[in-house]
Description:
The protein is α/β, with parallel strands linked by helices. The protein has helices at 10-20, 35-45, 53-60, 74-83, 98-111, 125-136, 165-168, 172-188, 276-279, 290-305, 313-331; strands spanning 2-6, 26-31, 49-50, 64-67, 88-90, 115-117, 142-150, 191-199, 209-216, 221-227, 237-244, 247-252, 255-260, 270-275, 337-338. It has two domains: 2-118, Rossmann fold; 121-300 and 316-338, Dihydrodipicolinate Reductase, domain 2, CATH 3.30.360. The chain is globular, with a radius of gyration of 20 Å.
Amino acid sequence: MRIGLIGIGKMGLLHGGILNAMNDVEICALVDSSKFLLGFAHNLLKIPIYTDYIQMLEQQKPDAVVIATPVFLHVPMALECARRGIPFFLEKPLSLNSQEATPLIAEVEQKNLVTMVGYMMRYSESFAKAKELLDKGVLGNLITFQSTIYVSQLFKTGKGWRYSKQKSGGGVVIGQATHLIDLLQWFMGPPQMVSAHTKHWYSQEVEDFAHAYFFFQNGVAGWMDSTWSMRHHRLLEITIEINGENGNLIVTNDYVKLYLDTPVQGLNSGWTNFMRPDLYKGVEFDVGGTYYTSQDKAFLEAVQSGQSPDSDVQNAYKVQKIVDAIYDSAGKKGSPVSI
């Protein structure tokens, strides 16, 4: 399979390293606006380089494309791939806002095109195990939840496109908390209403802190707290605690802890712990976390089968709608907004 890689920043290099190590995969071209990075990559890897992604698509005709560029470039590039019928993987988030992505969704659905958006936490062993338990209904009816997503990233004014609302779409909510938002709707279905507050402290244009309260269609309610300015979190850390009629479940990047009032489906009452090393299934090549490799492998398999994974652009569009509602509610000082 011949893959065109657009964007060779941090995430582009990560995906490129993974794909380059896989059997029967060839990175046929690199695209970036930085001639320095392109020159270095070409000298090292001897791969054709381009500064114009349309020229690359026309000349190389790749079987699939990976897009790992700043957010404001996502929709134009993905739309060009969709119009040509080329399956694509797009780093999250989908777009600056849901309205911008509407033409892309229409084109993808018309072509019945295989797509994927990079919500890789679905491929983490612990979160996948939590999804399995919830789908089995071991907690009974779900009641409430509480969740956090924290990282120690920003403690002074940030530089670059991520801190420009025009280029990024927003701050910590769209840039990082979308990983948690995606997990919440994966676990509990679509939310119908949100009330949110945001605060900028280090950044001028985008939010550094956000707190949102969700009401889901199935009656579950709970909150999400997010910031990229929380001390003592070297890596991005997610914690979700879900309370149900038969117990509660706590899931983090590293473990799943399940407490049941009564035994169900072979699980004893009381505590049952699933630690990440025990859930580890292994991957052929690990760069930055096994979930990245599992995600890229799932995309390649989807292209081969012609069947999009659950984390496709339609799913990412639903996440984007939730993000829009959070920003809308925060702008109205927490007034509830329907999704």
